[in-house]
Amino acid sequence: xxxxxxxxxxxxxxxxxxxxxxxxxxxxxxxxxxxxxxxxxxxxxxxxxxxxxxxxxxxxxxxxxxxxxxxxxxxxxxxx
Length: 80
Description:
With about 80 residues, the protein is an alpha+beta fold. Helix content is about 20%, strand content about 30%. Strand 1 (about 5-10) and strand 2 (about 20-25) form a beta hairpin. The longest helix is centred in the C-terminal third of the chain and has 11 residues, at about 60-70. The model has no long low-confidence stretch (mean pLDDT about 90).
C-alpha cells in the first residue's frame, strides 16, 4: 500500500490558479507545497515550489514557513 500524505489545509490564490497545501505525512511530520494549474489544461495541479521535502513538527510551523516563502500566500490569508 502506498503511503499518502493527508492534506490538512489548502489555500488558493484569488484566481484559483495556485494553491498551497499543508499536509501530514504517514510518519507524523508535516510539510507544505505550492501548486499551480492552468484552467485550459485538464490534467490538474502541478507542484512548482520545491518545498514538499521540508519537514515541520506542527501545522503552525509549516504554515509560517509557507507564508515566508510564497509571496501571494500572505495576501490570500490576509497577512502583511
